[in-house]
Inverse folding.
């Protein structure tokens, strides 16, 4: 439990499908930081630490970003763990504030690769991908997770329409998020009729690449703006390369620490009011929920139809990356954390979950070869 | 085209790897010998029908293959093999491919 560190403010840039001339990863990150500082009522000159992740910051690094932002810091981190980066940075920043290494700390993530830039990243994700997958024309992560999705459908008797319930529910949440790039209602007919991208994944199973950035501000809870509840992290756990790619990819690293996470947090799955589950693909949302112990009897199909489809459990209430957009995997992860904070601070507007007090957030990513190698989860709590 | 797919086998415990590793994840030995796997069984299939930034893309079939005494490998399929099919493995450049074994 972190007693002296909390999330006190959040901010984001615009999300756009195609960045305009003059817009770059750096400008989107700047916009998110400006918004977060304003939200937290913190002056830029007060910032002592910064954590950043991005697929498209190079050749700049974190210190270049600090320089261009005019931030003189004593704590600096650059994370490279993809869909887990936001969660990873959250943990490091919490410990940084808690131990007095730095406070306040900015945590920021953003990308503006454009579609062509994203395709290059996808083909050169790591050495294994560049040498053994890209030459096959694997289509980036879509090809990898199409195979994982088929495995999940076969093992757990999940149907295509089960995944559709998730896409439709998240689109309904996105309708209430002015930052989401896709907000029009989605029907099951539209979902099932969508063009195939990589069998069995269709268009609405694949996150739309956007340009954008997120930022959160962490500090002592006393620094939270008056009248707003700080958000504390009860517990956070990470996993890296949990099975050496020797499994089937239907479990994530969350399975290695879920029990310890709940125990440390003093909470149970039933306590969760709102969940931000990293949604690069619908199958991986179900896999993470299953690993967290949130799916009774490992019945993924029923959970997708009932708990998600009927919105009995509020999951990815900003629309998730599937509807709001994915500004690179890293920023997509920070989006889920930001949304959980807004929900717990009762500032989520039309999508507010009534009386939300406890949230779970996750990260998943860094496809090593056959599936992702990083995972993380945290239990967040509204402080009164 | 060369027959089989090159894998790396731990000299100490015999575990097979693809892609190459630096240490064996089972015994943490660091000495590997080259080996080749020539056959496998198709487990799952996908067809890559659309790729970002590609306007004249031709669909390609990929498969997850369980190799005999070796690791699971993602290969390009050169034919219409379905899950459960035993296939021959081969390399084009460094890339792994497979196709159904010819009927004797």
């Amino acid at each position: 439990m972190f007693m002296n560190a909390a999330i006190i403010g959040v901010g984001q840039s615009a999300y756009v499908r195609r960045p305009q001339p003059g817009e770059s990863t750096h400008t989107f990150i700047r916009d998110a930081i400006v918004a977060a500082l304003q939200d937290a009522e913190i002056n830029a000159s007060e910032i002592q630490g910064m954590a950043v992740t991005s697929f498209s910051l190079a050749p700049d690094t974190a210190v270049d970003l600090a320089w261009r932002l005019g931030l003189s810091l004593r704590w600096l981190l650059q994370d490279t763990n993809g869909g887990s980066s936001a969660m990873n940075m959250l943990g490091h920043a919490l410990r940084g504030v808690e131990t007095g290494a730095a406070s306040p700390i900015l945590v920021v993530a953003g990308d503006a690769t454009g579609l062509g830039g994203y395709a290059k990243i996808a083909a050169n994700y790591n050495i294994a991908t560049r040498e053994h997958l890209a030459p096959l024309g694997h289509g980036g992560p879509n090809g990898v997770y199409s195979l994982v999705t088929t495995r999940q459908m076969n093992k757990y008797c999940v149907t295509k329409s089960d995944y559709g319930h998730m896409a439709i529910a998240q689109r309904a949440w996105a309708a209430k998020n002015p930052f989401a790039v896709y907000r029009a209602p989605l029907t099951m007919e539209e979902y099932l009729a969508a063009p195939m991208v990589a069998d069995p994944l269709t268009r609405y199973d694949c996150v739309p690449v956007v340009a954008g950035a997120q930022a959160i501000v962490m500090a002592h809870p006393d620094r939270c703006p008056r009248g707003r509840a700080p958000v504390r992290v009860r517990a956070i756990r990470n996993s890296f390369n949990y099975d050496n790619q020797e499994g089937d990819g239907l479990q994530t690293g969350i399975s290695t620490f879920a029990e310890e996470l709940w125990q440390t947090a003093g909470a149970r799955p039933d306590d969760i009011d709102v969940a931000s589950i990293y949604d690069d693909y619908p199958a991986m949302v179900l896999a993470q929920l299953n690993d967290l112990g949130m799916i009774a009897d490992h019945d993924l199909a029923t959970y997708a139809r009932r708990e998600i489809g009927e919105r009995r459990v509020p999951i990815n209430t900003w629309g998730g990356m599937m509807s709001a957009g994915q500004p690179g995997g890293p920023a997509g992860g920070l989006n889920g954390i930001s949304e959980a904070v807004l929900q717990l601070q009762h500032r989520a507007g039309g999508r507010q979950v009534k009386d939300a007090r406890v949230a779970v957030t996750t990260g998943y990513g860094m496809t090593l070869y056959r599936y992702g190698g990083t995972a993380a989860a945290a239990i967040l709590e509204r402080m009164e | 085209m060369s027959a089989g797919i090159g894998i790396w086998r731990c000299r100490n415990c015999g575990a097979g790897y693809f892609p190459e590793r630096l240490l064996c994840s089972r015994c943490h030995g660091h000495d590997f010998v080259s080996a080749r796997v020539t056959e496998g069984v198709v487990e799952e299939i996908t067809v890559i029908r659309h790729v970002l930034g590609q306007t004249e893309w031709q669909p390609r079939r990929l498969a997850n293959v369980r190799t005999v005494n070796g690791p699971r490998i993602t290969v390009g399929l050169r034919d219409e093999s379905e899950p459960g099919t035993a296939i021959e493995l081969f390399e084009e450049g460094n890339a792994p491919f497979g196709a159904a074994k010819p009927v004797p």
